[in-house]
Amino acid sequence: MNFIILGGGTAGWLTALYINKHFPQDSITVVASSEIGILGAGEGTTPPFIDLLKDIGIDETELFKHCKATIKTGIKFTNWNGTKDEYFHNFSDGLYALHFDARLLAKYLQDQAVSLGIRILDTEVTDVVLDQNKNISLLVTDFGNIQGDFFFDCSGFNRLLIGKIYNSVWQSYPMPCKRAIPFFLPNSGINLPEYTESIALKYGWLWKIPVQGRYGCGYVFDSAMTTDEQAREEIIKYLGHDFVSPTTFNFQAGSYKHSWTNNCLAIGLSAGFIEPLEATSIWVQILSLRLFVELYNKHPKAIEKYNHDIDEINNDVLSFLYYHYITNRTDTLFWKNFKTNNQIPKKLEILLNSKNFYNILKSFDFRIFEEHSWKSILNGIPLLVDNK
Q1: Residue-wise DSSP of 123-186
Q2: pLDDT tens across 15-74, in order?
Q3: Residue 149 CB contacts under 8 Å (≥ 6 apart), including other chains
Q4: 179 contacts 251 by C-beta, under 8 angstroms
Q5: Which of 270, 138, 282, 136 is nearest to 209 (CA)?
């Protein structure tokens, strides 16, 4: 079996290492153009990331040495009720995750892949050839034709295979934030907080992730309600000083209904994205890889089951993230009309309309975020206190 992975960001290298672990007898090639580069904005994780590192044979302490990693025990939410209050979503049972420099992590994972004999081609894809069954047979690149049996689309927001070749059906999610301004702030590297901070602003929220020597930050906002210039002014007002942003990027909350199509599977941002809140992107990548390995060549309807299960996972993530926004803030139309402007996900609507939130919550089979996590948000946003 010849596996081809298109894309060299975190998703691409994690996929390469995970597939190598579980299909050691097969050939793996990563096609990643240094000219295109990576987004490098996702620098927070959840506890399953530690389990994944162990699975692929990486000692987590190596990330502290090579990727400026720091410990993450949860998320601090600031001003989500508009009263400068704070609440925490801590990981349960003493679990912890990591923050890291995303570009350094990608480089470290690449080095690990090279040491394991995974083939890497630094080139760009110029065309894709399908066979008579609409399976991908080869990628046409500046390096030459690359033939494969199975292809992973890890091309990020470019979505070169699952989106542009297979035109998979896109499902939009009712979340209004669709633009981000990332930036860095220095830190001393001493006594860093062991949490990500999510700070609610007028038209979205700002992330603040501590890694060794700097904070990775960014304002995620509704670009229909505020311009880049106004968003920058709001950040400056909050920080009390100016800042430099290397880029800005748009995103659309949603996912592909069929992220596994024929002999192509999208992993990471290429499969979909909701927003950075709660660092779910890498977590969904991990669940996706595990499910693929569980089903590939082992289940009679592997593609159908995979797409169904990942769709359920995405909808559970959507419900949980949407829940954070149902706050008591009314200072801007973004917060005041959030539920009016954005349809409540079906599962969440059942919870909100129930007479006993917790009893109904226990009856739901959530594939991501347990009861502890829901309680953390409920305790921080006192909108449903009568349902305790």
Answers
A1: --EEEEEE-TTS-EEEEEESS-EEE-SEEEE--GGG-TTTTTTT-PPEEE-S----EEEEEEEE
A2: 999 999 999 999 999 999 887 766 656 799 999 999 999 999 999 999 999 999 999 999
A3: 1, 2, 3, 263
A4: yes
A5: 282
* The predicted structure's pLDDT at residue 354: 83
Tell me, what amino acid is at 131?
A: D
Please tell me the predicted confidence (pLDDT) of residue 387. 40
Question: Cα 122 to chain center, whole Å?
Answer: 25
Domains recognised in the chain with CATH numbers: 2-69+100-172+254-316 (3.50.50.60), 325-387 (no CATH)
Q: What is the pTM of this model?
A: 0.95
* Alpha-carbon span 167 to 254, nearest angstrom: 14
- Return the residue matching tokens 């998703």: 11
Q: What is the mean pLDDT of the chain?
A: 93
Indicate the pairing of strand 214-221 with strand 204-211.
antiparallel
